[in-house]
Amino acid sequence: MKHLPIKISLFINYFVFAILLNSVGTVILQVQNSYGVTESSAAVLEAFKDLSIALTSFLIASFIVRVGFKRTMLISLGFIGIVCLAMPQLPTFWMTKLLFAATGVGFALMKVSCYATLGLVTKDSKEHVSIMNFLESFFMVGVLSGYFIFSAFVDDSDPASTSWLTVYYVLAVLCFLAFALLMFAKLDESAAKSTTQKPLAQEFLDMIMLCIKPLVLIFVISAFLYVLIEQSIMSWLPTFNNRILHLSTSLSIQMASILAAATALGRFTAGLVLQKFDWFRVLTIGLLSAAVLVIIALPMAASVGSEQITSWGAAPVAAFLFPLIGFCIAPVYPAINSVILSALPTHQHGSMAGLIVVFSALGGTTGSIITGILFEKVGGESAFYFSLLPIAAILFTLYLFKRKAVELGHG
Length: 411
Hints:
By secondary structure, the chain is mostly helical. The protein is 76% helix and 0% strand. The relative contact order is 0.16.
């Protein structure tokens, strides 16, 4: 199959960064246990991750095509592999902050390159939206795997132990294996280069000017709101499981994997469904279903007893039900990303991917910090009700996005 080696490499690269990037929820719980930091202090880890993603994407996306997508991905993997090796050697909260800042930089480089590369290895918009969903579903498989990988290194008998940091040696090995695989994958990047070579300053300005296009403006608001919802839940679900549902630390991390599994399944399913059905209808049904789950599951969580739970079989229904929100909202992000990229010429995909990453990162940081503050001020039972507000808002922006896309012939 044409482009198969590079497609496989994109999936593997995304898998590696999924484990690192979305370990933030697990690490938020662990730094509270190991370093004694408060909920609001732990919440800044999301900011270190997301703001570095946003800043890096903003600065490099417009001219990343000059460096080359493949070369950029190799730099990203090599850089983060080295940082992972350093993490266990410096068991402090400030090193944890630096780790997520480095992860953010590496992921920004990786995501912009992956998104831009998709336009080079797909033949039409239907294949693009399908591959986008499969890629994002594989990302969630990485997130799912990460929960079990991290939980294997957690010592339930000594919550303050830093033995969990050993996991970063394993992650460093994965980075270097992904690096080796990408080295041998071939990628023709000539189609991504604009026919007229512009100065770097002009290319950067062109990326900024994309934002004033109505379709792009509505899109970035939608992407911001989606990631705000997703990351606020994903980053705080292990803490919710531990503090509200009274699951043991390792079980709290393991059961948070249900959210990742549900999201992966939702995106895989969407990769098939969106080939036949209108994306707006599918996303609307999913978001309304997510709102219903929030309303049903959170009251169940509030009624759970205080005895610690150490096995899957003894876990309350809410621990299984609430994470299913991932299945409902899963198709939103890859679908709208595909629509906006398909609406632009190939040579603008790098710049647009940069804007996607920037506003996604800002949404993730906002959601996690607000949820962390709510956890501390009003309690975990009430904190996740906050997600109903952005769910309602994104339903409205998606309606505007669909209408504008149809006007331009890309709906």
